[in-house]
Structure formats: C-alpha cells, structure tokens
Amino acid sequence: MDSLITAAARALAAGDPLGALNRVALRDDPQALALRGIAMAQLGDFERARPLLRRAARSFGPREPVARARCVVAEAEIALVSRDLRWPTKALELAQATLQAHGDRINAAHARYLSLRRLLLIGRLDEAERALASSDASSLPAALRTIHWLAIAGIAMRRLRATHARHALAQATHDARQAGIPALIAEVEHASRALAVPAARLLSGGMQQPLLLEEVEALSTSGRLIVDACRHAVYATSALVSLGRRPVLFALAHALAEAWPGDVSRHELAVRAFRARQVDDSHRARLRVEIGRLRTELRALADVRATERGFVLKPLHAPGVAVLAQPVDEKHAALLALLADGESWSSSGLALALGSSQRTVQRALDALADAGKVQALGRGRSRRWITPPVPGFTTTLLLPAPLPGD
C-alpha cells in the first residue's frame, strides 16, 4: 500500500473525509475508489458513494476477498444511514464472515454492529440483545465502543430502563470523545437529548401530563393498569396483553381506560371502535361480540362490566388505571417519529420499521406531504423522505417495540 493510500485511510478513520479526498480524488485504482466512496459517504453524498464502492469491489476481483468485503460493509453502512433497511443483509453476513476468517476483526466487528443497529431500527429487540450479548467491545477501538454503548442505550430506552440508558450514554460520551470523531460525538449528543424531553403523555382523570423516560419507567412499575397507546398493549405489574394486531379491541380498551372510573356509552364505544358515523343495530350487535373478546383478552388484568348505558373497566388487582399516549396527538405520529431522527428514509424502510405495508406507508407519506409536514427528495427508487425534527419530544419510544416480557 502506497503512502497516499495509507494517509487517506488514516484521515477517514479520524473523520476527515476532505483530507482523504485531497490525497486520492484523482486516482481510479481500486484502493482509491474505495476510499473515495467512503469519503463521499462521510460527506453525505450517498448517490456518488455507492457507484464508487461498487466499482472498487468489481476492480478488486476474487483474489482480494478482504478488500471486496470491506466495500460491501461500507455500502451496507450507507444503506443503514440512508434508512434503506431492505438492503440484502446476507451480503453483509458473508462479508463479516470473510473479514473474520482473514483476521480483520475490527471491520468484522463493524459489520456486526451494522447488523445490530438495523435490528434496533426495525424493533427486533430480542435479536439485537442476543447479538449484543455475544459482542465483547473492551478490546475494540473507541469509535466501535461508542457504537456498542449506543446500541445498549437504544435497547434500554425501548425497554423503558432509563437508568441503564443513562449509564450507557455516559460511557458512549466518554468513548466518543476519546475517538475524537465529530460526527460520532454529535450522534451521542443527539441520543442523549432523548432523555431530557417528554417520551409520552399520561392521560388520567381527564388530565394530560407529559412524562420523561424515567417517569414512564416509574409508571410501568407502579402497579396501575396501563393502556399503552405507544405500543398498543395493556399491562400491569403481573401481566401484559399485546393488542397490536387487534385494533378494535385496543380502541375499546383505550376508550374504557380514558373514562375510568366512569363508564362509556354503547353509542360512543361503537363510534370509536368502528369509526361509524351513524350507529345501527349491526354495530350494537358487533359491539357485544367485541366486548366479549376484550373480556377474554384482559381476563388476567381486568373485567369489563355492563352498566345501564354502556360498559366500565374494573381492574382486578391494580389500584388505578392510566392511559399512556404518544407525546404528540397526531394520526401519523409513529411515522413522524421515525422521520424526526434527521435521516432520509425510504418508504420501504419506513414500512419495515413500522411493520406496515409499503402501500399504507406511502398513503400516509402523501397525506403528510400535502400537509407540509414531510418532504420528498429524489425520484423513483432513490426517493427519500425527510422532516425537520419535532421539537419537544423524544422519538425513540414511538418506535415499534415490545415491552418487557412481551
């Protein structure tokens, strides 16, 4: 490896893409193409970075598997940053295995953390935790240790473990400063801000109260019966019932919990559960069926009793009932929360992260674009969606994620 390539690689490792380009911008050999691609990616020009990395991978040929694998890892990182979450993970796994087999443990670890962060983004926390448990970051460079602690913090936030998240972010801050990479330091600061702004709203007794992550954690262990509109679940200390795939049942539980300790009329329940403009006999018959199903689902937590005008929620053991709502009252709040991380998302990536169809997400994006809340960049398959960060609330709790014990 010549001196210019070595100097450019060191500049990239230190987070200096312009310094790297000054050394290799006019060269077209495979090593220079790869470094130029990584430099362009660090500058945020992903459209130029991808072709450069692919040209480099083709130029290296089969006799240089490690160099080719590094190009694959770099392209995977671009896919992650640009929120192209349907990028083929199999290629990244093969690249990680190649790097590990040839003794490049640093880049192999980098590939492993890219996979882990993708799992975190799409809410597959159990898989992310298993991957993290098998990772030993103590002997890795400071930059990778920062990513390790950021992953721990991300999981802790989604598990409502505020203390663990705060400790992990403190470690990430220490390692990011040691690495001295401005982009990494900024990423840690961005993640740390999530602990200082409301993560949810508490609806109880007709009042609304914004809650920080610590307060959400305290509420979840308070023994009260919680109807969680962030995750579409009902839980208390003893049990959890997920209603993520039962929207009618969750709408009924939400309406009953909001009115607790009072009851809700049959007419209002039918309107909220079925979105009916005019309630007729068919709606009332269907309501009886759905209330029966809700009783079955919540049998370990609460009873749903009939009253003269409707139904009332009666917790079995909990001293009270509360509704945990999203920080903002917006129809597409979960979509906006993902976009508010400041990155540009593809509609397919949003669909994967939210567990929805791409058609559903596209309709929501079109509605938000008409309202001026999101903006599209590019055309066709390269189209990405962005929105300015919504001030005053954290985004991570809105991501689709199971609760502890789910």
TrEMBL record:
Note the superkingdom of the native organism. Bacteria
Task: Identify the InterPro entries for this entry.
Answer: TPR-like_helical_dom_sf, WH-like_DNA-bd_sf, WH_DNA-bd_sf
Name of protein: DNA-binding protein
Give the originating organism.
Dyella japonica A8
